[in-house]
Amino acid sequence: MDLERVGSGRRVSRSRSRGSWGVEDVFSASRRSRRSNLDDDEEALRLAALEKLPTYDRLRTSIIKSFEDNDHNNVGNRVVHKEVDVRKLDINDRQNFIDRLFKVAEEDNEKFLKKFRNRIDKVGIRLPTVEVRFEHLTIEADCYIGTRALPTLPNAALNIAETGLGLLGIRLAKQTKLTILKDASGIVKPSRMTLLLGPPSSGKTTLLLALAGKLDSSLKVRGEVTYNGHRLNEFVPQKTSAYISQNDVHIGEMTVKETLDFSARCQGVGPRYELLTELARREKEAGIVPEAEVDLFMKATAMEGVEGSLITDYTLRILGLDICQDTMVGDEMQRGISGGQKKRVTTGEMIVGPTKTLFMDEISTGLDSSTTFQIVKCLQQIVHLTEATILMSLLQPAPETFDLFDDIILLSEGQIVYQGPRAHILEFFESCGFRCPERKGTADFLQEVTSRKDQEQYWADRSKPYRYIPVSEFANRFKSFHVGMRLEDQLSIPYDRSQSHQPALVFKKYSVPKMELLKTSFDKEWLLIKRNAFVYVFKTVQIIIVALIASTVFLRTKMHTRNESDGGLYVGALLFSMIINMFNGFYELSLTIVRLPVFYKQRDLLFHPAWVYTLPTFLLRIPISIFESIVWMVITYYTIGFAPEASR
């Protein structure tokens, strides 16, 4: 009986406790709800107040949220709204904004881009799009074969001699004509992720370079490439599109974030500011108040010349580089980020810019399948929600990555085997008698089915004996396939140039004014000088030591002016001084040579003209050279006993 009373008493006590907790939870939830409503009201009031500002100030001012104790996971904290100048966002504000909005890169990126697109659609603005067409594209190269093709000194001398004789019409060596692409035609459409597949040496890189307008001038090109119906000579394709190379060329002394910031400053903001201006005008007329996060992001990414850009922080997060953003990129001489991270930096360099037409060459090399999936997923969201145009070449993509693409271009031996929706590609090969095994990845099957060595294992038509089907036959069969016939019909109708959005194509060679590019280059060179400060200190100490040694060798007490042989000692001292100062600057020569590949890449991408790179490199080294010369002169001039007169 006593035990029963005790047990019932405990049950009553527990039920009362639960009841009291439930009441507390209700009041706590109620307080949080009221606080959330108050925060939303405050945000709406501040955004409404911004709409009353003059247009110039309104486009540069936004609202940023922060928590009182900077703990974003504590929902009970009070949210603080403050007005900020988007050009002067400090690193903490930018980092807090990114951390709050993009906790999980793939999921939160899609949510944010949907908010961005919703804001655009509310006022009826049409985003600029680019449709790339290539028709009957044939690319050939004249090349040597055998030992004649080796990069030896005799072969180089023969090449120079044959070039000179060729100008006179004399042809000595026989060159072999190599067909890289043969009669390739297709369309890369906006708002659709397009995957370029093919076995090695099938011409994938050449096709990407041709579409980006970056082919070598020595190649023979027939056919036509157009953007929205415009030929490549009617605009600047290097600024309208971006080719992302499979080679990772970066300055090792710069961090990941500094590399992307420099790229963002050189590429500018493109049509983002004009889009923001038109958007703000229409929203004001319609009485629409935008969401604070989207408003801040669009304003911050539309400001030109900002040293620390929000678009850089956003790119770092979606590429998974935020964990190493302050780490040196590194090179052969110093440790840095991993090879896979360098590959992502190469991709990020172009994504931070305003270019929405990207040709990406094997960006997954060195990356694991999960990281590749994350990057491609984020790019897919950008393509679908911002109507970008992306043609991406991947080496053996995983099945889940392959399924992210809308269209497939299969290239083999320089010919287009298939181009069209991903859903119909297996149907095409089944019509040719080949079937992908159930446990075989579709991408691996597509790259092997055109190979003479691997084709037989996929033969599925048992009613006929197997025979090797060459690539040319596949290409001809595709033209009679319903996808190929639809593609021919689309290519037969010229693109209506009146439908092309003017900001979609770039007609200026450089996106940023020359003086802004010069300032950016000066900032980068000054950063590199500070990063290599030890070298310059070491050089100064070295020249001091050598100057002391020279002073003891040519000591004044032993230097006479009696005859010509004494004068020879002074000439020897002068010659020694000149040689030492000259060799002391040789390190600058090696640094410049190491950085030349980066300069060539940035010059070809039209980041800046050559003189913008050369001028800061030259001018910022003059004070260092003058200081070293003064140190040498102070120690040696009077110690050796040169003429003390100012006129001498």
Automatic annotation (TrEMBL):
PROSITE patterns: ABC_TRANSPORTER_2 (PS50893)
Membrane topology classification: Multi-pass membrane protein
Superkingdom field: Eukaryota
Record InterPro entries: AAA+_ATPase, ABC2_TM, ABC_trans_N, ABC_transporter-like_ATP-bd, ABCG_dom, ABCG_PDR_1, P-loop_NTPase
Subcellular location: Membrane
Presence of the UniProt keyword Transmembrane helix in the record: yes
Domain ABC transporter: 165-438
UniProtKB keywords: ATP-binding, Membrane, Nucleotide-binding, Repeat, Transmembrane, Transmembrane helix, Transport
Transmembrane segments: 533-555, 567-587, 618-640
GO CC entries: membrane
Record-given protein name: ABC transporter domain-containing protein
